[in-house]
Protein 1
Amino acid sequence: MISIPCVSASVMRFNEKELVFLSRQPSEMAAELGMRGPKKGDVVKRRLVKLVVNFLFYFRTDEEEPIGALLLEQCKVERENSQSFSIAFLDEAERKYLFECDSEEQCGEWIDCIVKASYEFMRKNLIFYRTEIHRLTGKDPLEQYGISDETRFQISNGLQLTPGDTSSL
Amino acid sequence: MKLNERSVAHYATCDSPPDKTGFLFKKGERNTAYHRRWFVLKGNMLFYFEERDSREPIGVIVLEGCTVELCESAEEFAFAVKFDCAKARVYKMASDSQVAMESWVKALSRASFDYMRLVVKELERQLEEIQEAAGGSCVGAAVGGMQGRPKLSRRNQVARSRSGASSSSSSSSSLSSSSSAPPMLVPFSAQKSSQDEVQLVSGCSKENGVAWSKPPVALANGFVEGGSSCVAWEGCADPGSSTVIGYGAEGVRAPPVPPRRKGASLESPVCPGTVCFSKLHDWYGKEVEDLRMQWLQSQ
């Protein structure tokens, strides 16, 4: 856990050890790319970039522990030119992380993977499939697994509560 | 290690609906007293706030790869979030009722990205089967705005939002249309949006008294230019409806084994690549059952 005593903006703690451990798990995509941070004056540096679940980890090319991680929720991925793409987060859309690939094709693959790497994206897909299967068959496909009631799978309001659930808003 | 903390904190407080919220007691790391905190679960991230109306979280626990167990504690209704890595911290929490504890344990143990991915893949597979069985004839009717859409099983074209409501500049597209895309159909439909170029599909269809809303447009991570960050939830909510229909159980089918992911181990429920959805699901169910048994025995 990181806890830095600070006088101004508070730092949000997170479970760093576990996140570093996650960075070592099998990834969807991993490659050496050029990467430039969002701050003015940042330059492109060669990094090992690795996509694991909804995190994008980046490493110095010869190091085992990542320099950093980007949680890929609420972000926007854009093609910048034929071989580069950027990631920006909704709360600070002007700050872009730039990634330079070796080919147009590679760039396209990365964009594709990152777009699909968010939990929220998957949730929408799930809702779509659930709705569609129901439309076509008249049956709720989650029923047979007993998970129809789970909040995360709900069609409408994400806070669908079952009776007896006391931990609600 | 750095993390894009500001944006992560924004995810905690943005208007995407959380999967679960509530007060829990959390044991401190240095100060080992239990502190009451407001918890917000979104996806595989468990945020905690000092107060329910705090504007920013104190911290977040990334839940990917965790297991949730009951724990021995002087506190009643206690459980622990554990990780499989060396020197990992154990997060001890306590709820204020049996029901709440069970609910949290269930929610947290199924919060992983991998679990969601498995469920999605399973439904995708089921939908393909249905499509193929039906000869592809009924595809497209529910999918507003795209005429002549080929069968879902043809994956050459990932659906592109016709509205161009993707927020990128006109020369770039923020949705990929790579033909080598992994089989994940991007659902799209019209939806009410201030951007309005999106066509509107009429309301929600009702069947058996349940409103099944039209699927939302999926853009790059749910981003809509200038609008709310939650495309999925706007215009699709029908608060009065129940989303669960009771059907007679038909018996569980074991799904065919999906392709194994490179490097994944075979049998761990929390590891990517567990090959059988049905089995994985049983594991999760069993975990909850075990916890329930443990608690009953400890009474």
Note: Chain B touches chain A through 128 residues (CB under 8 Å).
Protein 2
Amino acid sequence: MGLELYLDLLSQPCRAVYIFAKKNNIPFEFKHVELFKGQQYREEFGKVNILKKVPALKDGVFTLAESTAILLYLSRKYNTPDHWYPSDTQKRARVDEYLSWHHTNIRSNAGKALWIKVLIPLFTGQTLPPEKLQEVMDELAISLKQFEEKFLQDKPFIVGSEISLADLMAIVELMQPIGVGCDIFEDRPKLSEWRNRVEEAVGKELFQEAHELILNIKELSNIQIDPQLKEHLAPVLRKMMK
Amino acid sequence: MVVELFLDLRSQPCRALFIFAKKNNIPFEFKHVELLKGQHLSEEFGKVNVLKKVPALKDGAFTLAESTAILLYLSRKFNTPDHWYPSDLQKRARVDEYLSWQHTTIREKGCKIFITKVLVPLVVGQPFSPEKLEEAVEELNSALKQFEEKFLQDKPFIVGNEISLADLVAIVELMQPVGCGCDIFENRPKLVEWRSRVEEAVGKELFQQAHEIMLNVKNMSTTQLPPELREHLKQLLKP
């Protein structure tokens, strides 16, 4: 039994794991957990990840949640090139520093545009006032400013001259608002150049492949939403709509 | 030149770092950044951490933010005992898994209780909102349920038989609501036992020392916040 990665490419951290595994030729079975169909709530998937979230990993009897943990596990098990998680203590610390800060800054803000523009209307039938989107984009702008000033600065990549897990986790989040027409790279030339470098380092074809779903998310506006999923999300939706 | 750790023990991640460094006899200079005096907003501290947050580390010309990063950096540089961040691939993954998950769950919700009950009243000069506190407690309850079911289960510590960075990062966060008078350990015997084991593994004296300020947080209610800090917090804490 080989490595299994439980993924839905609509999810930012899933894309990071997918890209990393593919780029490094790590053999794995793609186990599709369709979020819109509520498959993350199935009992079977609960045995892989009791937290009922993607991405998740299954390696023999060993199961693992959390994309950061999965990326680090894969990098160690498959001995991926050093630049992804440099052995140099200070460079490694820079990756750790970004991966930690990322959760409550880039990650917490970048995904909201999709919720406001597509998911909430899809699940509730209600559209939110434009101020709501503006509020969310303003918060993301603050995170982006800190990203450029503290983490990227004038370097090609977050750690220095080579791409690392930090850049990978960041880029997949920043592609989320692009999918709903919020081009956060517009008017941000430094960020735009960094994005190009990351795409180049990952490989344009692989990058496009990973992002195909999210960049065509508007096509999903007509799909049938699983009713159980609606129920699960009700409290989250209520909170976001306040 | 010795490692400088910029800390305020009112902050949970600062306590994790303080305990880790002391426990492992890592020589460091304690640079006190008094949050209630707004010292983290100073230009000088901004040179150490442009994000203006504690904890922060300065090791010669090298500066570092984020407690997870600092803990890992110290564990590597000072070659601390294996159990803190086990070299076994799967055990290490369990630590990484917890350190990642906790940001938006245990940490966020534990902070929310402190913010609702102590910080907001201090900033706006009004008593705390019981509804908001109840909401915050409910959210932490959900996170605690997941903590017990997924991360702790029936093991002595998160990874297994020995304490690791995961337990350390968890315990300091869970002491925050306790310091505000919300005893989240009440009616949770498994969690209480885990806490005792963690205190034992860290050393009771060191644990108490790290938590002294927080456990006397009621003294904060009479604190006068400097106006710049008050304004800064008003912006930060907008609902």
Note: The two ends of chain B are 43 Å apart (CA to CA).
